[in-house]
TrEMBL record:
Lineage: Bacteria, Pseudomonadati, Planctomycetota, Planctomycetia, Pirellulales
Alphabetical UniProt keywords: DNA-binding, Transcription, Transcription regulation
Signal sequence, start to end: none
Biased composition (Basic and acidic residues): 1-13
Keyword Transcription regulation in annotation: yes
SUPFAM superfamilies listed in its UniProt record: Winged helix' DNA-binding domain
Protein name stated in the entry: Methicillin resistance regulatory protein MecI
UniProt source species: Novipirellula rosea
InterPro entries: BlaI_family, WH_DNA-bd_sf
Amino acid sequence: MLDKGLLKRDDGAKPQIYRPASSQQRTQKRMLGDLIDKVYEGSSAALMMHALSSKKATAEELKQIRDLLDQMEGES
């Protein structure tokens, strides 16, 4: 994880202390982008279709997805 840039190491401390290199949200976004590129050939739509067909979303999750889509359409 250190080599992948996910962690930072404090070499001055004994024992060595490891800390996240980025916030959880930033790391998730980066890793998801890599997944979309490598597995779904760059298609976020393919990822979403696969995710939504693999496991039933709750009503609240579907509302959040609709809200996000509405927000994204408004930005176009």
